[in-house]
Protein: YkvA family protein
Amino acid sequence: MKFIKRIQFVFHFRKSLPFIKDFFTSSAVHPLKKVMTAGLIVAYAVMPADILPDYLFLIGITDDIAFTAFMLQLAVKMAPPELAEKHQLHIK
Structure:
């Protein structure tokens, strides 16, 4: 069930873009949270190996989608509640 919620979250990615901008520019978000989130994203992007190789097309991008969903959910959970509410992003 949690995986399905993550997939639904990714389908609303466009709605998440303004939140991501506000998350990284807001003074209400602790700088350590910003660094941790950005660091995880960069580390995953430069990692030479995927769990599932991307050349397997739809199957191969599954781990990328799961990671993206996980990072978005993590950012929403770390953000101040008013920031998540402003963008109508709620994780339960």
